[in-house]
Amino acid sequence: MADRPDPAALELLVAVSDTGSVGAAARSIGMAQPNATRSLARLERQLGLDLVVRSTRGSTLTDAGTVLVDLARQALAAMDAVTESAAALRGEAAPPLAVAASQTIAEHLLPHWLSTLRTSRPSSTVAVHVHNSHDVVDDVRSGRTALGFVEEPTVPGDLHSMIVAHDEMVLVVAPHHVWAGRRRAVTADELARTALITREPGSGTRMALDEALDQQVRPHLELPSNAAVRVSVASGAAPAVLSRLAVADALSVGTLVTVPLGFDLHRPLRAVWTGSRRLSGLAADLVAIARDEGAVNSSR
Q: Which residue among 62, 122, 207, 293 is buried most deeply as judged by most CB within 10 Å?
């Protein structure tokens, strides 16, 4: 039987796929770049295949590399499972996974992700902290949590991130508001001139709206939760832009109605973390579940 590939080389191949360059991949797994170059060359010789194409613009996987990187991810996950199972057999309880999530994700997506995780990993324990996206980033950066889920359009460059799902934001008003029943789409300029009920600065919803309008919104009222915004909008005070996830129940019973928008307001939902580029253990499982369910929802 041919020699099995070095796990470190497989981890490096996965990191190249994720980062787009050998240098960035090496840094993400704590390997010196000369060692990374030699490791990839050795892996290619061992497998008899070209795996990576290097250029001045970075590194990309060949067709063979693209096929093998998915198998490499599975192999590394299996090795992590062996290590964790051995710890369990020794009677060592795995520490809880500390996760921070922004409000929309924590209220409408994370519970189902955790239920799926619990089904596949019955002994898993997860401690959840709910904040706005800005504070989630602070939690992850400081090490208070190992993993975060945020709604903001961009994430700081010192964090690793991965898109796990996409979300649509909608403009909502009370049924008796002057915009209710409006057929003409509201433009970005018109919305920017309108006083809105908004989430607080630092929330992913507020940041996404500011970015879409290319300016700071004009708050009629700033509130710290989606629920508070919904109640205020339903009173007829002013319009608001919220995730469709956050207003689905109110739309179904008619306490809020949507108003058409003349511009796109979709945003990515991301997992964020520090340390190694490659997640492992419960964190990797949870992110994989989020991505799988996000892909299913996007195809509907």
A: 207
Burial class (CB in 10 A: 0-12, 13-18, 19+), 181: exposed
What secondary structure letter does DSSP report for 150? Answer: E
Question: Which residues sit opposite 166 in a β-bridge?
Answer: 268
Phi-psi label, residue 214: left if phi above 0, alpha if psi -120 to 50, beta otherwise:
left
**Burial, 134: exposed, middle or buried (Cβ in 10 Å; 0-12, 13-18, 19+)?**
middle
Report how far apart, in Å, the C-alpha atoms of 113 and of each of 118, 181, 299 are. 9, 36, 18
Q: What is the pTM of this model?
A: 0.71
**Per-residue pLDDT reduced to its tens digit, 70-115:** 888 888 877 877 776 777 677 665 678 999 999 999 999 999 999 9
Specify whether 193 is located in the same domain as 77. no
Domains in the chain, number: 3
Q: Give the domain-ending residue among 89, 109, 134.
A: 89
